[in-house]
Design goal:
The chain contains 25 helices and three strands. The chain is mainly α and 502 residues long.
Length: 502
């Protein structure tokens, strides 16, 4: 991740965060005691003893707060993919794997970094990042799931927390700075040295790479998660072997994933041996996996080159999923503003491909691009009847209402759908814009405050709520809600300050 290292580390160390919700009182017994995972299988799946997690200087509360601070910077980064269809796909896949794991209390945030390098990384607090380059490097969905399962294993076993704890840093601010420095290192190892120097953590330089024990443990946990999630466990050694073969004769250009996750022949052999004793399973890719890969390809690099590649694949039948090639071609044409050609591909998809929300959303976006608001509205209405909880369609329809200055309809849509996604900052952004169109200042500032709050930015949330409290409009009931919320936000700020000082 090409992060602005000094700026982000400084922001992380100095910023205040909202007080986190109370965590559960107990973690999974295997994590806290170091006991091996229980299994009904006849072969050994025990995990190596890596120390007593209860002795770490990072408590579960610390890990959660670090994760929230990192997510604040992630949400503001230009290098993080903001496409809600890609975001929702990765989180759906990640949460499916998490639900198959043993730790039901750890919360996760998955995000995608716009970077062609092959990499993925995990941080304290359940933060997992995946580069677009890794998504494109996987041959099937099970391979992508195997990498996510591996990263989930690092989180649930608190490997990064143990690495930080081993350095004996005794203040949360130092730990937070080191954590983000390590986030930079995970995303781009070439930036590690500068990031660590900035956070006064040069001493951790030698621990940037996970140990062999960490990797072996993450592999074993990842395999359990992969199998429990219904994926092909052979995908893990297959993907690792592909990475190893591709870099065998070019050591200096090894993927970032290999530099932060040491890969050895013994490690691959260990995974292969375990997989050989597990149930054989053929698992087809989801159509979402294929569409997301096509979308990433279409939106990056030379659009003309992408168009020719998609057309050649279709012409020569070089594809796993023909609909995905037409979908990618339509996205590329739309990106180039070749609207008639894009329309032709959408027509093909609606005639030949099974119904899908991503196709319906593409069709509506095309109508917007063609400046056909009535047809766009009709498309959104029809699509939302089929997929009422699809965020991309909700976003698109709301933006459509804002574009044609129908603030009332935008507000009604968001209010109708907000119960599905109460923590969605984008919904509050729409409300803020719509209320502003209506010159309702109190409601606009209030909505913008809630948007910042859901992006983990407590300082700006308080600033906006203060503006709402000072607004001259609004009735007694609305002002009372704003004043009560402002008191609550300030209390959260005080709680965070006390925690940081303590």
């Amino acid at each position: 991740m090409k992060l602005k290292t000094i700026k982000i580390v400084t922001l992380l160390i100095t910023s205040s965060m909202f007080a986190p919700n109370l965590w559960a009182q107990a973690y999974d017994e295997a994590v806290l005691t170091g006991k091996p995972y229980e299994t009904q299988r006849s072969f050994d799946l025990s995990l190596p003893e890596l120390g007593d997690a209860s002795q770490t200087v990072l408590t579960p509360l610390d890990e959660k707060r670090i994760g929230e601070q990192i997510m604040r910077d992630v949400s503001a980064s230009d290098e993080v993919v903001q496409d809600v269809e890609i975001i929702d796909y990765l989180n759906s896949l990640g949460n499916r794997l998490v639900s198959a794991g043993s730790d039901k209390q750890q919360k996760f945030n998955f995000f995608v970094v716009q970077d062609n390098s092959i990499n993925a990384f995990a941080m304290p607090g359940g933060v997992v990042g995946v580069h677009t380059g890794l998504i494109l490097a996987t041959h099937n969905e099970s391979e992508l799931a195997s990498v996510l399962g591996h990263e989930i294993g690092h989180v649930t076993q608190h490997h990064m927390a143990r690495m930080l704890a081993s350095q004996k840093y005794d203040t949360f601010k130092n730990i937070a700075g080191i954590a983000l420095a390590l986030l930079v290192a995970r995303a781009n190892p070439d930036l590690a040295s500068g990031a660590l120097t900035t956070s006064a953590a040069v001493g951790i330089q030698n621990q940037l790479d996970y140990t062999r024990e960490h990797e072996r443990e993450a592999d074993r946990v990842g395999l359990q998660i992969l199998e429990g999630g219904g994926f092909d466990v052979r995908a893990m050694p297959a993907f690792f072997s592909t990475l190893q073969r591709g870099t065998r004769f070019s050591e200096g250009s090894a993927p970032s994933f290999l530099r932060t996750h040491p890969l050895t022949s013994e490690r691959i052999a260990d995974v292969v041996n375990r997989v050989s004793q597990m149930t054989y399973r053929q698992v087809p890719d989801s159509v979402e996996f294929q569409y997301v890969r096509a979308k990433i390809i279409a939106n990056n690099g030379s659009v003309d080159t992408n168009i020719e590649v998609f057309k050649q694949n279709i012409r020569e039948h070089k594809y796993i999923n023909e609909a995905a090639e037409h979908y990618g071609l339509a996205i590329a044409y739309l990106r180039k503003n070749s609207l008639p050609q894009a329309e032709k591909e959408v027509v093909w998809l609606k005639k030949n491909a099974p119904l899908h929300a991503m196709i319906e959303n593409l069709s509506a976006r095309l109508q917007v691009a063609e400046n056909n608001p009535q047809q766009a509205a009709k498309q959104y209405v029809q699509a939302l009847k089929l997929y009422p909880d699809n965020r991309a369609l909700i976003y698109g329809y709301a933006d459509h209402f804002l574009a044609i200055k129908q603030a009332d309809n935008a507000i009604k849509l968001i209010k109708d759908k907000q119960g599905l996604y109460p923590n969605d900052a984008q919904f509050y952004d729409v409300l803020a814009k719509a209320y502003s169109m209506q010159s309702k200042l109190l409601l606009s500032y209030q909505a913008q405050s809630e948007a910042y709050f859901r992006r983990y930015d407590l300082i700006r949330a308080i600033e906006q709520m203060e503006l709402a409290a000072k607004a001259n409009d609004g009735d007694f009931y609305q002002k009372s809600i704003v004043e009560a919320r402002l008191i609550e936000l300030r209390r959260m700020q005080g709680d965070v300050k006390k925690l940081n000082e303590g």
